[in-house]
Structures are given as structure tokens and as C-alpha cells.
Write a structure and sequence with these properties.
The chain has 127 residues and is of the alpha/beta class. It has helices at residues 15-25, 84-92; strands spanning 8-12, 29-36, 41-48, 51-58, 77-81, 102-103, 110-115, 121-126.
């Protein structure tokens, strides 16, 4: 029945700041950008390695996301990386702090977390 995840939708509080974060800092590619006047909302479709992955939305005055304490719902967004050190160094050039590197107790793979501009937790998982 299910084949794969088609996309993840994210609502941001500051469209230009989040657009910069996901495209310039994380390096996602813009597929299309649409301003929906009737909703006062942008919709930005983003790809990673030519695969459509994220819809970034803006809406007027969205409520803040509760991240701590952890609540029901989506916990975080995770991206695979070849080297945590390389990814962390890139984030540091934008003054983005990451948590200390941890080891997945089941796979023995290394990972870390950081946050997007709206404090959505993002994981980097080394493959």
C-alpha cells in the first residue's frame, strides 16, 4: 500500500528566515515558490538530491511549536550525512549550535541535534 514518504510540511513564523535556513544553510533546492494571496501564505517546495521532501509554509501569526517538554506529535526531522564533523563545521559557520555527538545504542551510529529558526528539532544521522 504505502511506497515511501512523499513530503513533510513545516509551518514557519518568519518565512524569509526559514527559507534562508533550509536553502542556504541546509542546502535544499527550491522546486517552486508560490504566494497564495487568498491565504496570505507562501508555499515553498524543496528537494534534497532531486527528491521532493519538504513543503515550507508561512501563515499569519501561527502559534509557537511546543518542543520542550516533548509533546505528542512529530518529534523531529532527521537527515543522513556522511560526516558529522563536516556537517557540524558547516552549521558552526552560521552560528548554529549542535548538541554533543551521541551514539545510537542499537545501530552504533553517531548522531546530533540542532534546531531550525522555529526550534523544530533536526537530527543529523551519520551513515
Amino acid at each position: 500500500m504505502l511506497k515511501r514518504i512523499h513530503h513533510i510540511a513545516i509551518i514557519c513564523s518568519d518565512y524569509q528566515k526559514s527559507k534562508h535556513f533550509y536553502t542556504e544553510i541546509l542546502g535544499l533546492e527550491i522546486i517552486r515558490e508560490v504566494y497564495r494571496k487568498e491565504r496570505l501564505s507562501y508555499k515553498l517546495d524543496l528537494a534534497l538530491n532531486d527528491v521532493y521532501v519538504i513543503e515550507l509554509f508561512s501563515f499569519p501569526n501561527p502559534p509557537a511549536r511546543v518542543s520542550r517538554p516533548e509533546t505528542c506529535g512529530m518529534r523531529h526531522l532527521a537527515f543522513e550525512v556522511l560526516s558529522l564533523e563536516t556537517a557540524i563545521k558547516r552549521l558552526e559557520t552560521y552560528n548554529i549550535k549542535t548538541e554533543p555527538i551521541r551514539i545510537d545504542e542499537f545501530t552504533q551510529k553517531r548522531f546530533t541535534f540542532f534546531e531550525d529558526p522555529d526550534k523544530l528539532p533536526i537530527e543529523l544521522y551519520e551513515i
